[in-house]
Amino acid sequence: MKFRHFCLLALIAFARYAEGAQETNADTLYNDAWYAEEGLRDPEKAVLLYKEVHAKFPASKDVALKSLTRAAECYRKLGNPAEEARVWEMAWKDYKEQIENSDEYQHEAIRIRTAIDKALAGAQGIDMAEAFNRILDQMPPQQLRPVRDSVLLQAAQQRQTNWFGAISSLKFAILLSVKLQDEVTAAKAQSEIGEIQLEQEDYFGAIEAFHEAQSYRKQRTVLAWNQMRMAEAYRLSYMTDMAISTYDDLFRAYPEQIEQVLWAKLWAADCYRELGQEKAALDILKEVAESTEAKNHPRQALMARILAGLEKPPAEFNPAAKDSFTNDEFYFIANRFKADGDLHKAVQFWKSSIEASVGKDWPYQMARQALYLNEASVKSGKE
Which of 63, 318, 326, 362 has a CA 20 to 30 Å removed from the CA of 33? Predict the structure, then answer.
């Protein structure tokens, strides 16, 4: 009897071990698929890996469901709406209860339900879409423009209370802007979609939105800022290497966008510092401080000198006119104080960075994380 009991316990332990190993393997394969999709920009390879996760690890429901949603997005990127709809339907069929009962998947639930409805509409839905496009093509710009502007206003009003509705409105505004051949507004609307997803902490969605904005190639100023935001989304996803790579792409692709390049170099240096690559960080900071553009961009040059230890950080920092970069400056000064061993001042400036942020504007999340990790040490007197 004791032997049977021992065997039963052994089987239960082995089953739990196998279940944990399965989840680990599912996560590993999912990460490989995501890297193929976003890192290698290879949706064909990614979709095969995502489908493999679902096939091999159906019991790991969170990872399997995420894999199906990403596989559907890959099919969308590949221009295969039939497979996209089929995968969404599979997700809804296999994980319907989980989706409906989990706040985490409400976004996916809406998208899946919409995709299925479109699939069920079949040819009629396609005909309606084509007819809608033909109507827009026939409308003169003087009629389209007020409609587009009204939709943008609606998106702005929805942003605080119905972010999903705001994204839908922005997508419609993009369609109308393309019809109007207004790439500037289309690029800005696409960027705003990425901003909303960043606010919702949907970092992978934000990366995709910012990447899609790259199709508006003529809007170089907008795209350079987009590249910075994409790097920030990677960093918030704990993919600091990808953030550095994205900053490097900005340096190469938009050298004429001096303001964005200089800010990006400061943040690239911060990434290197986070990875413990102090020499690489210092080299970039000295490059900014000594650049020929420093005279025309004194703010970035000052931050570079402070971060490089070439100039002392200010004990108090109250610029006459606060703007969207004030919170960046507070964050950098806090990091300098921390490097100098003055954690009290660092905490003060991280708090100032949070207070100066608008909503969850960058680097709000980074400052909050730094404050969380360091404020307890200050309160306990252990620096």
Answer: 362
Q: How many CA atoms lie within 13 A of 102 on its CB side?
A: 13
Tens-digit pLDDT profile for residues 248-274 = 999 998 899 898 899 999 999 999 999
CB 336, CB 313: distance < 8 Å = yes
Query: CA 372, CA 213: separation in Å to the nearest integer?
Result: 34
Helix 258-274 × helix 326-339 angle, to 10°: 30
User: Tell me: the pLDDT tens digits for 112-126?
Assistant: 545 544 544 444 444
Per-residue burial over 243-280, b if 16 or more Cβ lie within 10 Å, else e, is bbebbeebbeebeebbbbbbbbbbbbbbbbbeeeeeeb
In a domain, 360, yes or no: no
241 falls within a domain = yes
Q: What is the DSSP string of 24-84?
A: HHHHHHHHHHHIIIIIS--HHHHHHHHHHHHHH-TTSHHHHHHHHHHHHHHHHHTT-HHHH
Q: Which domain holds residue 15?
A: 1-121
96 found inside a domain: yes
> And the tokens for 125?
């839905």
The domain total for the chain is 2
Residue 136 CA, distance from chain mean position = 32
pLDDT of residue 288: 93
Asked if 97 and 19 sit in the same domain, the reply is: yes
pLDDT recorded at residue 8: 37
Reported for 212-219, long-range contacts at CB under 8 A and 24+ positions apart, including other chains, are 213/187, 216/183, 216/186, 216/187, 216/190, 218/183, 219/183, 219/184, 219/187
- End residue of a domain, out of 256, 286, 320: 256
Cβ contact 187:224 at 8 Å: no
252 with 154, same domain? yes
Contact between residue 223 and residue 214 where contact means Cβ atoms under 8 Å apart: yes
